Amino acid sequence: MRVSIFAILPIALALASSVTAHYDDDFEARDYIDDLATRNYGDILGARDLLVDISTRDLVDELTRRTSKWTCQAAGCGQTFSEYAKVTAHKEKTGHKIGLTK
C-alpha cells in the first residue's frame, strides 16, 4: 500500500500548526513567582508595624470623628461644625456641650 506525499502533507501541516499554537503558562507563572520573591516589602511591613498598636475601636472612633458633624447642644446656640478643631475651640471659648449629629 502506497501513500502519496500529497495525502500526508495536509495532516503534517495540521499537526505542526496545532503544536505551535499551544502556549504554556508555566513561564508566566514562574515570572510572577520570581517577581514576588524579589519585591521589596519594606514599606508595607513598616505600615503594618504602625497599625499593630491601633485597636479596631480606635480606628472606628477616628473615622467617626473625621466624617461626622457636631452640633452645639446649648440652648439658643445650635451651631454645627464639620472640623474637630472648630469644635474644641468652641468648647473652650463658650464651655458648651457638643454632640455628634447623625
TrEMBL record:
Query: Which top-level group of life is the source organism from?
Result: Eukaryota
Q: Where is the C2H2-type domain?
A: 72-96
* Entry keywords, A to Z: Signal
| Stretch forming the signal peptide | 1-21
Stated name of the protein:
C2H2-type domain-containing protein
Question: What organism is this sequence from?
Answer: Ephemerocybe angulata
